[in-house]
C-alpha cells in the first residue's frame, strides 16, 4: 500500500509517500520559516498563501522521487487539525479532492498523532504500549499509549506549551523565531548554575505542566541582572547564562514529570516527540535518567522532530492498514481538535 501524506497545519508544507512494504519512498519539505521570521512569529494568512503556492509542486516532486504516478497511490492522508485553520484547509482541500478524483480513501490525521507515531519510522523503534511526551510549539502532553488510537492524556500544560516558552524566552533575549534551537545553542555556552530558576508544578502531585511563571521569572531575572553588566561581553555572557538556566529548568521539569509518569504507569518505554524533542539537553538527560531508572527513550531522528509529511503519511498508513479511519464526505479542518 502506498499512502500519500500531506502536512500543512502551520508553517511547513510536508509531502511524503509511505509504502507499507518498503517504508518511506518520498519525503518533500518546504519550510516557510524565513517568510515569518521577519514578523517574529507565524502570520496565518501568509502561511495559507504559501501552502497554496507550494503544495501541488511538492506532490509532483514526491511522485517523481518515488518514481510513481498519482494513480499508483492507495490512499491519501492529510493533517485535518489542530492548527491554523487557513493552513489546514489548504491540505484538507487538496487531500480530499485528490482522493475523490482518484477514487481513493481520504484519511484525516490528527497532527499530534503524527508526532506521537514519528519515532516508529526509525529502525530502533518502540512497541506498543508506551508512554509518550509530546512537546511542540502548541502542546505539552504526557500520553499513555496503549495501541493505535488508544491514547489517555495523563498530563497537559495549564498555560504555555514547552516550545512556546522557548520561543517567548528567545524573543526576550533578542533571538530569531522560532527560538528553541537558538536558546539551545546559546545555553551550551552558558552557566546553568548562575541563577536558580523555579521548577513549575514540581512540588504538586499530578502530571500537569505550567511554563508561564517560569517565563515571567526569566524576564525579571534578565532585566534585573542586565543593569549590573558593565560591558557588551558581560551582557552576552549573561544572555547565555539566562538561556542555560531557563533550558535547565524546562528540561528538569519535563524529565522529572516523565519519571513520575513512568513510575505511575509502569511503562518501560518512553517516546519523546514534537519540535522540542530536538533539544540535545533533553535527549541527554533522559538517556542518563533511563539508565538509572531502567527505561528506554525513543526519539524521532532530527528531521522528524519538527513538522513534516513523513509522520502524516505514516500515521495515515497505520490508520489505513488497521482500519481505524472514518470516512467523511465533507472537506473539514479542525483548528482545535482534542
Ligand atoms: O512540532 P513543531 O515543529 O511545531 C508544532 O507542532 O508546534 O514544534 C516547534 C517548536 C518551536 O516552539 C521550536 O522553538 C521548538 O519546537 N524547538 C526547540 C528546538 N527545536 C525546535 N525547542 C527546544 N530546543 C530545540 N532544539
Ligand atoms: Zn507539530
UniProtKB/TrEMBL annotation:
Gcp-like domain boundaries: 24-314
Any GO molecular function: tRNA N(6)-L-threonylcarbamoyladenine synthase activity
Protein name per the record: tRNA N6-adenosine threonylcarbamoyltransferase
Listed InterPro entries: ATPase_NBD, Gcp-like_dom, KAE1/TsaD, Peptidase_M22_CS, TsaD
Subcellular location, principal: cytoplasm
UniProt family annotation: Belongs to the KAE1 / TsaD family.
A cellular component annotation (GO) from this entry: cytoplasm
Matching Gene3D superfamilies: 3.30.420.40
Binding site for Fe cation: 111, 115, 307
Residues involved in substrate binding: 134-138, 167, 180, 279
EC nos: 2.3.1.234
Keyword Zinc included in the entry's annotation: no
Role played: Required for the formation of a threonylcarbamoyl group on adenosine at position 37 (t(6)A37) in tRNAs that read codons beginning with adenine. Is involved in the transfer of the threonylcarbamoyl moiety of threonylcarbamoyl-AMP (TC-AMP) to the N6 group of A37, together with TsaE and TsaB. TsaD likely plays a direct catalytic role in this reaction.
The encoding gene: tsaD
HAMAP family cross-referenced by the UniProt entry: TsaD
Cofactor binding mode and count: Binds 1 Fe(2+) ion per subunit.
Catalytic reaction equation(s): L-threonylcarbamoyladenylate + adenosine(37) in tRNA = N(6)-L-threonylcarbamoyladenosine(37) in tRNA + AMP + H(+)
Amino acid at each position: 500500500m502506498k499512502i500519500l501524506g500531506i502536512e500543512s497545519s502551520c508553517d511547513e508544507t510536508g509531502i511524503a509517500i509511505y509504502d507499507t512494504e518498503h517504508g518511506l519512498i518520498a519525503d518533500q519539505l518546504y519550510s516557510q520559516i524565513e517568510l515569518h521570521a521577519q514578523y517574529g512569529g507565524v502570520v496565518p494568512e501568509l502561511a495559507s498563501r504559501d501552502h497554496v503556492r507550494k503544495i501541488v509542486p511538492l506532490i509532483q516532486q514526491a511522485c517523481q522521487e518515488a518514481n510513481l504516478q498519482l494513480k499508483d497511490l492507495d490512499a491519501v492522508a492529510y493533517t485535518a487539525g489542530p492548527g491554523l485553520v487557513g493552513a489546514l484547509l489548504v491540505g484538507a482541500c487538496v487531500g480530499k479532492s485528490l482522493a475523490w478524483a482518484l477514487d481513493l480513501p481520504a484519511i484525516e490525521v490528527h497532527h499530534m498523532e503524527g508526532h506521537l507515531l514519528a519515532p516508529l519510522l526509525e529502525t530502533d523503534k518502540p512497541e506498543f504500549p508506551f508512554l509518550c511526551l509530546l512537546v511542540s510549539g502548541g502542546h505539552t502532553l504526557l500520553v499513555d499509549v496503549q495501541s493505535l488510537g488508544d491514547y489517555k492524556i495523563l498530563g497537559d500544560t495549564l498555560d504555555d506549551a514547552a516550545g512556546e516558552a522557548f520561543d517567548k524566552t528567545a524573543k526576550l533575549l533578542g533571538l530569531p523565531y522560532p527560538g528553541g534551537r537558538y536558546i539551545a545553542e546559546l545555553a551550551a555556552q552558558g552557566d546553568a548554575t548562575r541563577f536558580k530558576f523555579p521548577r513549575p508544578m514540581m512540588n504538586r502531585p499530578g502530571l500537569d505542566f505550567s511554563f508561564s511563571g517560569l517565563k515571567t521569572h526569566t524576564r525579571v531575572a534578565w532585566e534585573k541582572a542586565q543593569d549590573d553588566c558593565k560591558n557588551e561581553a558581560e551582557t552576552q555572557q549573561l544572555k547565555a547564562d539566562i538561556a542555560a538556566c531557563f533550558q535547565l529548568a524546562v528540561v528538569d521539569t519535563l524529565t522529572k514529570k516523565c519519571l513520575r509518569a513512568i513510575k505511575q504507569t509502569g511503562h518501560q518505554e518512553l517516546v519523546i516527540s514534537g519540535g522540542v524533542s530536538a533539544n540535545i539537553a533533553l535527549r541527554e538527560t533522559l538517556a542518563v535518567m533511563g539508565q538509572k531508572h531502567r527505561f528506554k527513550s525513543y526519539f524521532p531522528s532530527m528531521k522528524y522532530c519538527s513538522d513534516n509529511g513523513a509522520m502524516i503519511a505514516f500515521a495515515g498508513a497505520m490508520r489505513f492498514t488497521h482500519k481505524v479511519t472514518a470516512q467523511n464526505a465533507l472537506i473539514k479542518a479542525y483548528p482545535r481538535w482534542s
